Amino acid sequence: MMTTQAVAGSWPDGKRAAVVLTYDDALVSQLDIAIPALDAAGLKGTFFLIGSKIAPEQVARWRSAAAEGHELGNHTIRHACPQANYPPAKKIDTSETYDVDTMLTEIRTMNTMLTAIDGKLQHSYATPCGQHLAGGVDYLPALRASGLVRYTRAADPTEHPLDPMDVPARFFPSNATGADLIAAVQDAESKGGMIVFGFHGVGGDYLSVSAQAHAQLLAYLKAHADTIWVAPFSTVIEYATTHSSH
């Protein structure tokens, strides 16, 4: 199966690399800064939304983003992460308090919420905190069997033979520069591969990269559109899985 370092020229129209821009948690800075920047550059991103973080007044804005060609993805309703990620006092909505059925029910419910926003029946998924444990049990096998999602983004950058239900992604620290982000794209170009970027805040909120670094990345991608394919997560993973070399 094709790895994330695909053979050069295996992307559409002979492009040398594929770039996916993903944004987690349904943050205001994504609506205010990231989406306008993407629109100005003519690029489309994927936004993995947390149901409990979508304010009623934001629904129309997310619907508009989807109508413009951005992908809305599933990041669960409550984003349950391991207790270790939270202050010691927090005991609820941790992945330890879930079981596999609860997690799959939450993913199914979030799918319904997304369909109500964008009208699409199929959505991709990103694991909360990059892990797929519920009550200490790996729920990825059950998720694969459920048919609820076809493509899942992880938070681990380790490259491996392409598994559409465990796709590597690369996150950068808040002090990352535009040059740092561009260098990662150039590395993917040199290998004829794919890079999935993971962002949270852009110029605000938390775990943010600066609006300037983000804008510089988009400018580079726009300037190299002849050799770099930029598309939403589901679009790229579907292409990669249906055009894989064996």
Polypeptide structure, described:
The protein has 246 residues and is of the alpha/beta class. The chain has a single domain (12-242), classed as Glycoside hydrolase/deacetylase (TIM Barrel, Alpha-Beta Barrel), CATH 3.20.20.370. Helices cover 35% and strands 14% of the residues. The protein has helices spanning 28-41, 59-67, 100-118, 140-146, 178-191, 211-223, 233-242; strands spanning 17-24, 46-49, 71-74, 125-126, 133-134, 137-138, 152-153, 170-171, 194-199, 228-230. Strands 1, 2, 3, 8, 9 and 10 form a 6-stranded parallel β-sheet that branches. It has a two-stranded parallel sheet with strand order 4-7. The protein has a two-stranded antiparallel ribbon with strand order 5-6. The longest helix is centred in the middle third of the chain and has 19 residues, at 100-118. The chain is globular and about 45 Å long. It starts with 16 loop residues before the first strand and ends with a helix. The relative contact order is 0.23. Mean pLDDT is 93; it is low at 1-9.
CATH domain class: Alpha Beta
CATH homologous superfamily placement: Glycoside hydrolase/deacetylase
Our Rg estimate from Cα atoms comes to 17 Å
Strand content: 5-15%
Q: Which fold name is given in CATH as the topology?
A: TIM Barrel
Helix content: 25-40%
- Count every beta strand, where a strand is a DSSP E run of 2 or more residues: 10
Calculate the mean pLDDT score and round it.
93
Our count of domains comes out at 1
Q: Low-confidence spans: pLDDT under 50, at least 5 residues?
A: 1-9
The backbone outline, from C-alpha atoms, is globular
How many helices? 7
Biggest beta sheet summary: 6 strands, parallel
The appropriate CATH architecture is Alpha-Beta Barrel
Distance between the termini: 5 Å
Backbone structural class: alpha/beta
Q: What is the helix/strand order? A: EHEHEHEEEHEEHEHEH
